[in-house]
User: What shape does this take?
Amino acid sequence: METETLTSNMHLGRKISRIRELRGIKQETLANELGVSQQSISKLEQSEHIDDERLEVIAKALGVSAEAIKNFDEEKAVNYFNSFNDHSTGAFNNFNCTFNPIEKVVELYEALLKSEREKIELLEKMLKDKK
Assistant: This one.
């Protein structure tokens, strides 16, 4: 188990992939930035080892340092963001969600469904009037 963790920790391609995803960058976008094909990025992200020169270029395109890629640990990143508290002053300071997002989705869906039913009734009425 420890060997598996160590191996996955050293897999630079996976780290690049995860950093790219966290940054919201698509493979195609990164490929364009590096002047290669999307398939090349896919293959790169499957590579366990990447030479330092290439890593520097990729890091620059991702907006991070090569050291950040080498030292990236997803578990630590997740723990960092889960424990993050923003004590700054601003519009989102002490923001607490006062509604259930799922209930809002259901509410919006029901409103959409009601609207569609009204359209159907109107179309049916127009069809009857034509006959």
